[in-house]
Write a structure and sequence with these properties.
It is a single chain. With 146 residues, this protein is mainly alpha-helical. Helix 1 (14-41) runs antiparallel to helix 2. It has one domain (8-141). It is 79% helix and 4% strand. Strands 1-2 form a two-stranded antiparallel ribbon.
Length: 146
């Protein structure tokens, strides 16, 4: 299998690179749906759906790459790399939500509460997803012949 060298010196297989890119691409598509929801539900409170879409599109690609690299590096037990990519994932994950919370003007309290519940649920879901991917990939690596 052909390997590519990343900027941090670690080698990745073509399969890993393709997986990263597919995941990041899916997250970019997800951003479009999220912007539609913002437009339909939060534009009346001052949230600009175009600004949200731009922020979400710009951050979704690095979020996808960073979460994929967290999984791969955790399986390889390269904890320094996991920590580095976790910071990138956290910052890029929360940026669109921070924009929404900061730009919503005079929204009813229930809207803010709903946003905080949704953001919290998405954070929990993202963390669980990464942990399940690490667990699944670790099991596959353990079964593979050395």
């Amino acid at each position: 299998m052909v390997a590519a060298k990343r900027d941090d010196g670690a080698k990745q297989s073509r399969r890993e690179i393709l997986g990263e890119r597919i995941w990041a691409g899916l997250l970019v598509l997800y951003s479009t749906g999220a912007a539609f929801l913002v437009w339909k539900t939060l534009s009346q409170y001052g949230v600009n759906p175009v600004a949200f879409l731009i922020i979400d599109m710009v951050t979704s690609w690095p979020y996808g790459i960073s979460t994929a690299r967290i999984v791969v590096n955790a399986v390889r037990r390269q904890w320094h790399e996991v920590r580095k990519w976790a910071w990138v994932a956290a910052a890029t994950f929360i940026a669109p939500d921070v924009y929404v919370l900061a730009s919503a003007n005079h929204a009813p309290r229930r809207v803010y509460l709903f946003l905080i519940v949704v953001i919290s649920a998405l954070i929990i879901s993202a963390v669980l997803s990464v942990l399940l991917q690490i667990r699944s990939k670790s099991k596959l690596e353990d079964r593979a012949p050395n």
